[in-house]
Amino acid sequence: MPQPSVDIDYVANLARIDLTAEEKTRFAAQLGDILAYFEKLNAVDVTGVEPMAHAFPVFNVLEEDVEQPGFTPAEALLNAPAQRDNQILVPKVVDDAS
Amino acid sequence: MSEPLHTLTLAELSRRLAAKQVTSEEVTRAFVERTRTVEPKVGAFLHRDEADTMAQARASDQRRAAGKSLGPLDGIPIGIKDVIAVKGQPLTAASKILQKYISPYDATVIEKLNAAGAVRWGRLNLDEFAMGSSTENSAYQTTSNPWDLTRIPGGSSGGSAACVSAGEAPAALGSDTGGSIRQPASLCGIVGLKPTYGLVSRYGLAAFASSLDQIGPMTRTTEDAALLMQVLAGHDHRDSTSLKQAVPDYTAALHAPAKKWKLGVPRDFFGNGLDPEVRASIEAAIKFYQGQGCEIVDIKLPHAELGLPVYYIIATAEASSNLARYDGIRYTHRSTKAADAVDIYFKSRAEGFGPEVKRRIILGTYVLSSGYYDAYYLRAQKVRTLIRRDFENAFQQVDAILTPTAPTPAFKRGEKSDDPLAMYLSDIYTISVNLAGLPGMSIPCGFTKSNLPIGLQLIGRPFAEADLLAMGRMFETAHDFHSRRATL
Amino acid sequence: MEFEAVIGLEVHVQLKTRTKMFTRVAYHYGEQPNTLTNPVVLALPGVLPVMNAEAIRKSIKVGLMHGCKIAEVCKWDRKNYFYPDNPKNYQISQYDQPLCLGGGVEIELPGASRNIQGAHRIVQLTRIHLEEDVGKLTHYNNDSLVDYNRAGAPLIEIVSEPDMHNSDEVFAYLTALRTNLVAAGISDCDMEKGQLRCDANVSVRPKGETKLGTKVELKNLNSFSGVRNGVDFEIKRQIAAIQKGERISQETRRWDAQLGLTQSMRSKEQAHDYRYFPDPDLMPVRVTPEQIEKLRKELPELPFDKQRRYQKEWELPYTITSVICPDRELSEYFEAAVAACGNPKAVANYIANDLLRELAAAAPMGESPLTVSQSKITAATLGGLVKLVDSGAISKQIAKDVFLEMFQTGETAETVVDRKGLRTQSDTGALEKICAEIVAANPKPVAEYKAGKLTAINALKGQVMKQTKGQANPATVDEVLKKLLG
Question: ipTM of this complex > 0.90?
Fold first, then answer.
């Protein structure tokens, strides 16, 4: 198992959170402690043990393709930080393929 | 009729409403005024809409006058943890990122409460996004334990627990992912029930850890919890993890003749860190059950101590994904300092999330990231199976398992907030129950010398809530811990 | 040095269901922005996904049509990444246990000419899985707008093996896929409406080399010809680069149809770390053999199977089958008409030569041709027309006019013929009289005929037909004239 030290910059980027330098140092240390604590799990023999994906496995929880009412644009944009023409407004997104 | 209305149980209020000895308007006003009186000390509510609540109360009275009462909950005020969606009301999850958010839809449990005529009362404080064990992680305010205002009420449903404990509502909804109903119930001296995973719909509960979260009742008595469970439980087609299980009559189960249950005690698990007064209280409770003819069996839960790392891997992994939607784009706080579209994410989330939430998102993102999935997440899910098997084996021998709910009584504000690991350890007895998907209930079972509540936890087989309630009632009827009230 | 190209395609197809993949709000193209949303679509706090049964069934059908193995059990995974058109900032998809594995798409390559059937081969598939669509971003000068109507629509992703080697194969693959999916009612596959999207993975290697070269992902291929042209360009670009001694970077490039070239996209995360994990909100899907058989029965005949059948049973030429077989509606129409008259070649000719022409002409300016379902000539009445010709009641010449009349009015052939009195006259007596008159009135052609110019009879024949308004039986006219002329 890899050494429990976290590449904070990489992970914070994946998580899309700007961390201050102080936060990075503090979190890296705290997470290091927590991950060391997780090492306990390595001692467990899990050969042949299935991961517990669901508490009570059930299959085929499906609904038929029948329409239910939805939102009006006003309801959809009720909490929008910025909008125009009934759409969410964001600064220009530049790295789009289209 | 001389005791103040706010000191009565939900069941008693329900009886008096049905007998027309009192109106919902009177009942609700009593709780509204009680809240006004003690809130400056307790700080349980993030938001109150008194006009709306009183209007609901009046509507209940009109129904009753027209002979159209909707059942035992009609006209009873219920507090709502601020993480459950109510249409037209704020939902902050105690976070700045949802500071101005108004929910445009009702959670399924709210629809059920509405259909039962319950009166929704306020939005209750919690640890931000349900992440915490003391409610200190709320971005908005401090909630104090009514039994000692210098101490925390527990968490994450600390507002709900303090509200009921202080008599601001006869009952409240909480949510429980690793102990967030049971632990604050224990620390505040009330009853808290986490249902079997899948029994109560999660639709409308802002998700923390999808495979662990459940909504449940927080009340003064097991009878009250039974009445509330009756309304909350049941399959919901909008929640694919909700199970098609027949809902028994919980109240009838409470009044059925007491059984001589077999209770398992995992003494190995009562390790270091268990407060001696808590230990003494639990031992006394065990003796009590023995005295009632219940057999006490020593059981082993060999993997229970691995519950904490397993929980913190799975819960944070799921949370890191569940909280990605809080991004500054569609309905959350949006930073005004963002340089471009991508920066909106970085800055809005940095400004909107508190430190514990950030910490858990980072941890969860890490354990799922490339190269680490097998070592952490996959392994944790396998150990989770082993933890579950421990319980299945135990339930071959016993009907329920008895443990302390929390290792200590309520601790002082600030005592553990600098040490995340120490804080996480306060969930040691409750966490495995969520991992195994089992029902767990905390009831008051004693007080410390400094008059702080102590709770005991009963863990049951899947869908055995009726049994747990009956077991709890057996203890309740012979003790008065649940009827003591904090002086405020 | 000679090079060969290796191409794999990832095709996303929007399933033609009434509602979205994980919630029951409607989805259709072209609605006003943000009119097809609900709490689940917008990823509001507290919402949960619920699977669409019809989407599962349609996806299984796609797998069956293409010979895939349908997984006994498949599950859902979260693909985590942030983007404004991605409401949850994760997409529910299938990672390691997809619905379908393997399979293949039969394609038809271009023949030596348009009328000659090209070779067939099977392009291998890797897998097909289900996922949900994202919203739509529109870019303006200083900002972008997001419309979530499309967010959550059901998509299947069809991943081919790197099993194509040139743009003709790529074009044929897309064409075959679209034909199959439209025939089975899975999707309308209209690229302009985003119902079918295609990314291409292109690499080159020296001919004979077995190791794959560095692959480049191409995006923004917005039409079938765009895919063809983009792939062509990229192959040439890579070969030219290698010949100059340059290395091909593994990257994503954007096809610009205006400029006719691919451009490197501004670097995003190098390799996306999607942090796939099983979605705890959704239960797995189990498909039984019984369910598979039930769905298999609902599948239409695949167009190439139909083509083979038409060619074998009815000896129809490629020029006909290539027109009729790819169109399910048209082939059903065709077979119904054949059932009515028993003459497949004649029906086929009417369809290929006359019906399609008229349907195109009848469409309003600038719009696509009418479909057979909009034709006033039904399969039954077309069969009736053919029967009338085959019985000798009318000539082929007359039948053409009858056809046009039927197309305008919707009448049966019988009705038109009777109304206009177009039946072939076979009354020999009357005919002999007319022929004698014509012979008498036209000494010149008669003389030429008698002198040995046999084709001179046609002038006489023409006049007889004119006199009888085309209703004389040409064979009888021929007989009578020859008898008269000796």
Answer: yes
